[in-house]
Every structure is written in C-alpha cells, then in structure tokens.
Design a protein that fits this description.
Layout (H helix, E strand, L loop, with lengths): L28 E7 L4 E11 L8 E4 L10 E3 L4 E2 L4 E7 L2 H9 L11 E4 L5 E2 L14 E2 L2 E3 L7 E10 L2 E13 L8 E4 L10 E3 L4 E2 L4 E7 L2 H9 L11 E4 L5 E2 L14 E2 L5 E2 L3
Parallel strand pairs: 1-10, 11-20
Antiparallel strand pairs: 1-2, 2-6, 2-8, 3-4, 3-7, 5-6, 7-9, 11-12, 12-16, 12-18, 13-14, 13-17, 15-16, 17-19
Length: 279
C-alpha cells in the first residue's frame, strides 16, 4: 500500500512452489448436442479432457432417460473424436455407427428419445482423472438435436438374372433406408445411360423386397418382370446394357426422405463385377 514495487523474479531464477495440490476432480459430461444430418455429436465437459484417452466403446445412446428391459440402445464401435484436447469435443459418428442408430426407429429421431451414457473408462482429464459415470438408469438427455435432412442416394447395385426363374436386384444406398417404404414401380431397367432419345426399358411392376431396414435392400423380381426383361433383346444382357433409373416414390430413409431421383436421361450402370447373366 506504500507503492513499493514487487521484486522481479526472472525466468532464469524462478521460485519453486512451496505447496502443490494436484487435480483430483473427475471431469463431468455436462451436455451434448446431436446432429443426425452430419453425424456429429458435440460433447461438453466440466474441464479439459484428453482426446487420446477416449474409448468409443464406452459410449452408448439410448431412447429414454431411465433405461430398462425395453430400452432401445446402440453402443458405439468405430466412431472417433475429430477435435483436440479441450472442454468441448466433437465426436464424428462412423458410417456404421450412424446407420445402426438410424436403423432404430425409436432412437435419436427427436429431442425426447436421444440420451447418452458413458462409463468411467470413457475418457479422462489431463491429469488422468476418469470421467464420472453416466448410467443407463440416469442417462443424459440431448441439449440440441438436429434431424436428418439429407436424402439417401443410390451408391450401387447388383443384378443377378440367374437365380432360378427370377432376377434379383440388390440395391446399396448411402444410408439406412426404410424397407417397408419401397415401391417396385419406382425402379426401371434400361439398356443405355440415356434413353431420352430412344432405347429399351422395363419399369418394374412387382416383386418382394427384403424387410430389414438397412443400407442394402434386395428386390426379388416377379417372374413376369423377369420375363419382360429377357424378352427385350439388348436389355440387361451384360453390364454394358444394364442401367437403372429411379423415380419417385421408390424408397425413403428412416426420416421419411425420398431417395434422390436417377433420371432415365442419366441412368446408373450396374456396379463393376456385379452383373450375372442368365445361363
């Protein structure tokens, strides 16, 4: 109070601490945001945590706060943190984990059915203190939920014309689709990429779809549709004459979004090595 200046301590003659108390407080996951559209989960902790200590298999999402026998849950397997050490981490869900979550129609579709649990082995702070466990009986609810607004796309497909008396079309999509929403008439086979100026095509009229919601859907063609395809010489004779167009409706994802249309002016060729001719 007399205006005396503090004595300088240079960095070449620093003073050693007299008493030191280490951090023994466990970090707490205080909140999380879930973006179903880009597959990112933002985790906010009570202090800085170490990314290298993260164990993805210790994190589970469930559809209710108080888990029980009927609770729907998905434990993560291959997702990873894409940010650096800090109190806020970004967890990027892998395609496998995200599609498994989307497959569960009662899980992570809105704020009221998105909860997370984590064990004490899930992550640690910078001093090695394990995170406080969040049990399934008292799961943490999402703070901000963003739904899926990205429509599914056709990634590729296989056509097998040699399965008994019918053809089998195996469709692979960019995300989990709702098998029960599939409509066979939304799919057409054509012999050229662009048939707007003429060509051969068959719009499917029936058949049976696999009933499991997945990224892969199998359509067993009817005998009638199979024979309509075989009748048109030059259509689906080999990979070079096998293209697929998709109209609307054809199939939806688990959020009810229609698959992206593949127009007959730009049909998608059968995937490489995925055509089997009738023998």
């Amino acid at each position: 109070m007399n205006g005396n200046t503090v004595q300088t301590i240079s960095n070449t003659n620093a003073k050693k601490v007299t008493n030191y108390t280490a951090d023994t407080t466990s970090p707490v996951l205080e909140k999380f945001d879930f973006n179903l559209n880009n597959g990112q989960v933002t985790l906010s902790f009570s202090e800085t945590v170490r990314v290298s200590s993260f164990a993805v298999e210790e994190v589970t999402f469930q559809n209710e706060a108080n888990g029980g026998a009927q609770t729907v849950s998905v434990a993560l397997t291959t997702s990873s943190i894409v940010s650096t050490n800090g109190p806020v981490l970004v967890l990027q869900l892998s395609a496998a984990d995200l599609n498994q979550i989307k497959k569960e129609s009662q899980l992570a579709t809105h704020t009221n059915n998105t909860f997370v649990t984590i064990t004490s082995s899930g992550i640690s702070d910078m001093n090695g203190n394990a995170i406080v466990t969040i049990n399934s009986s008292a799961a943490l609810g999402v703070s901000l939920f963003v739904g899926d607004t990205t429509p599914p796309t056709l990634v590729g497909y296989e056509l097998n014309m040699n399965v008994g008396s019918i053809g089998v079309l195996t469709l692979t999509f960019s995300e989990t689709v709702n098998a029960s929403s599939a409509v066979s008439s939304g799919f057409s086979l054509q012999n050229l990429r662009d048939i707007s100026g003429g060509g051969l095509s068959v719009q499917l009229q029936g058949g049976s779809f696999s009933q499991q919601d997945s990224t892969v859907v199998v359509l067993n063609l009817t005998i009638t549709d199979t024979n309509r395809i075989k009748k048109l010489v030059g259509l689906a004779m080999d990979a070079n004459t096998t293209y697929l167009s998709i109209g609307n409706p054809a199939i939806k994802d688990m959020s009810g979004l229609d698959v992206v249309v593949v127009p007959s002016s730009n049909g998608q060729q059968v995937s490489a090595g995925r055509y089997t001719r009738d023998t």
